[in-house]
């Protein structure tokens, strides 16, 4: 008897449209091709084939990587958006700065005195 493993959470299963690729992946490959091939043919006229292939890769790679990469089910665009929001738009963590040093020293002396009395 054949055994087929069925995932418990069917929301995580992606619908494959063509050639085993999802709609998101097809769009990313299509946009990479639309950007990369014109660059390849233009650069090939003025530079060797190797340089044209490198130019094609440089232009097409970001689109392909954005289409394929996912982390914990979150697409790369959302991860990039969250990172930029956290890094540049959010206020940095503010730390407490002591303004009266005598108060700080007294607190430190009290804490040390309490700690030494507990040991005894």
Sum this structure up briefly.
It contains four helices and two strands, in the order ααββαα.
Describe this structure in words.
- The chain crosses the membrane at residues 26-45, 51-69.
- Keywords: Membrane, Transmembrane, Transmembrane helix.
- By secondary structure, this protein is mainly alpha-helical.
- The protein has a domain at 22-91.
- Helices cover 64% and strands 3% of the residues.
- The chain has helices at residues 23-46, 49-68, 76-89, 101-119, and strands at 70-71, 74-75.
- Strands 1-2 form a two-stranded antiparallel ribbon.
- Strand 1 and strand 2 form a beta hairpin.
- Helix 1 packs antiparallel against helix 2 (49-68).
- The longest helix has 24 residues, at 23-46.
- The termini are far apart.
Structural key phrases:
mainly alpha; two-stranded antiparallel sheet; 2 strands
The radius of gyration is 29 Å
Number of strands: 2
Multimerization state: single chain
**Overall average residue pLDDT:** 81
Main sheet, how many strands, which sense, barrel?
A: 2 strands, antiparallel
Please report the distance between the alpha carbons of the first and last residues: 73 Å
Helix and strand composition category: mainly alpha
String of helices and strands? HHEEHH
Write the layout of secondary structure elements.
Layout: H1 23-46, H2 49-68, E1 70-71, E2 74-75, H3 76-89, H4 101-119
Antiparallel strand pairs: 1-2
Helix pairs in contact: 1-2
């Amino acid at each position: 008897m054949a055994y087929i493993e069925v995932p418990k959470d069917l929301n995580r299963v992606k619908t494959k449209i063509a050639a085993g690729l999802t709609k998101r992946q097809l769009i990313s490959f299509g946009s990479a091709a639309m950007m990369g091939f014109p660059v390849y043919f233009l650069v090939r006229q003025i530079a060797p084939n190797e340089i044209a292939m490198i130019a094609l890769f440089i232009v097409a790679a970001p689109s392909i990587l954005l289409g394929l990469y996912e982390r914990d089910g979150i697409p790369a665009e959302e991860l990039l958006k969250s990172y930029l929001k956290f890094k540049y738009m959010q206020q940095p963590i503010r730390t407490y700065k002591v303004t009266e040093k005598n108060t700080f020293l007294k607190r430190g002396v009290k804490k040390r005195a309490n700690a030494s009395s507990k040991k005894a």
